Each structure stands twice: as C-alpha cells, then as structure tokens.
Amino acid sequence: MLQLIILMFIVASLKRNEAIMKTLILALAVLLVGCSDYEEGQKAEMHYCSMVENGYWGAYNPDIKCEEVVKND
Question: pTM value?
C-alpha cells in the first residue's frame, strides 16, 4: 500500500519527465515482485515445517531448519 502512495507521488511530481517516471515505475514493480517472492518463500517454509511436525512428511529438505522457521513466525 505504501508503495502505491509513493508511486502516485512520483507520477504527480514527474509528469514532464517521462523517461525518469517510467524508470521509477519499473523499479517499483520489480521491488513489489521481489517482496511477493520472499513472502511466498516464507509461507512455503512454514507449510513444509507444519507438515513435517505433524508427521505427514519426512524432513527431506536439509536446507530448511524448522526450529528457526518456527521462531521467526
């Protein structure tokens, strides 16, 4: 939500300089996608740890430390 407010401010203040505006919009879009990927990764780790903890899955991924994931939740 904050990113949209920032984007609106940038658009309003840079109406005359279209190249800079397009560059900033592209950079903001990349930032939003990156944040979404990070959050999706966190959700996947939490799901993995939940399934391992409940005994549905074996702990097949040694890269995920469920003790750390639970603490960060």
Answer: 0.54
